[in-house]
Write a structure and sequence with these properties.
mainly alpha; about 5% strand; 6 helices; 2 strands
Length: about 180
């Protein structure tokens, strides 16, 4: 297995394990434990990345976007999230951690999407809605509207967010060159 393939596989495994920790922690009434365990893959990613500062900047940009998007979903009644709220009306930390985790994939296991903004919009629409639906099905969130409208709203927001995140990641990629852990 080449170094680049190993990097992408490891990145995917870190992301998926972090997602599961956060979502299952919230679904099982232990959102802080899930967030704590979900932080481990983020720290591992930053520890392995060659350009930690650029990765951290990308993650913080995604976090800012996540605060806005998930706060809007909560305030519009699209979703409510289980446990761990620090401030009423704002997303819980475990959910915001998912945005950091997702950002860690953009220049690694999802690097094939860089520059493909239309495909990113389609994938964001579908995969974003599926990921939130999975969280609802596992018990980490509930829809405040009927499922179809909730999925449509989430899909639309992710159909916009993923291309925006790809643009940010693409610009960093062009300025910094190829990224590999190994």
């Amino acid at each position: 297995m080449s170094g680049l393939l190993r990097t992408r596989v490891l990145n995917f495994v870190l992301y998926q394990s972090g997602w599961l920790c956060c979502v299952l922690g919230a679904a099982n009434g232990r959102p802080w434990l899930g967030a704590g365990l979900g932080l481990v893959p983020v720290l591992a990613h930053l520890g392995l990345a060659r350009r930690r500062g650029e990765e951290a900047s990308l993650m913080l940009g995604a976090l800012a976007l996540g605060i806005v998007v998930d706060t809007l979903h909560m305030r519009m009644g699209t979703l409510s999230f289980q446990g761990g709220l620090l401030v009423s009306g704002f997303p819980p930390p475990w959910l915001l951690l998912l945005w950091l985790q997702f950002a860690s994939t953009l220049r690694y296991c999802l690097s094939w999407l860089l520059g493909r903004y239309v495909l990113g919009a389609v994938l964001g629409f579908v995969a974003g809605a599926v990921a939130y639906w999975a969280g609802v099905r596992l018990g980490a969130a509930t829809f405040g509207v009927d499922t179809a409208h909730g999925l449509l709203r989430i899909g639309l927001s992710w159909g916009i967010c993923l291309p925006l995140l790809l643009i940010i990641a693409q610009r960093a990629e062009e300025e910094g060159g190829t990224y590999r852990f190994f």
